[in-house]
Amino acid sequence: NKVKLKGMEGFQLNQDLSEDQKYELAWGSQQILTATAASTILIFWDNEVILRRGLITNKPFNPGDICERAFEQQRLISLVNTELFPGREEFDCVLKGLPAVIVYPLSNRGLTIVGGWSKRSFTNSDEKWISGWSDKLYDLLNI
Q: pLDDT tens digits, residue range 94-137?
């Protein structure tokens, strides 16, 4: 069941990026929001948010323990039901009350964070798509 999330519909993109980087962020985030059960996406790069899209907030993002674990393990972390995870509040600055979250490290320089509309909202295919696009994004941002 889809949760009624509170946030404003938005698209915030760092204007200091190259045109190629902006295009990829715009294209890829739109694909994730339309082809998966994602409600929001945030890209964190070199200690700053460079993209927020979907339902968003303007709260500052600071990676917490779950994000640090993604960095340490260098792998996707999927919180299929955030109610079961201590520390889920670290994603309230992305969007409060997200029922599912995917965190994917961009090496040690950033994160892709995707929030879902409902518990268990992301499929294995969604995870592969988000991981693959994030790897491509890392190569483009790491110039």
A: 999 999 999 999 999 999 999 999 999 999 999 999 999 999 99
What string of DSSP letters covers 19-88? HHHHHHHHHHHHHHHHHSSEEEEEEEETTEEEEEEEEE--PPP---HHHHHHHHHTS-EEES-GGG-TTG
Q: Identify the CA nearest to 57 among candidates 114, 116, 6, 118.
A: 6
Of the candidates 134, 135, 113, 138, the one whose C-alpha atom is nearest the C-alpha of residue 46 is 138
* Contacts with 93 (C-beta within 8 Å, 6 or more apart), sequence order: 57, 59, 60, 61, 62
- Round to whole Å and give the CA distance between 70 and 45: 14
Q: Are 25 and 106 in contact (CB under 8 A)?
A: no
* SS3 category, 106: strand
Query: The tokens of 61 are what?
Result: 């993002």
Calpha distance 126→143 (Å, rounded): 27
SS3 label, residue 116 = strand
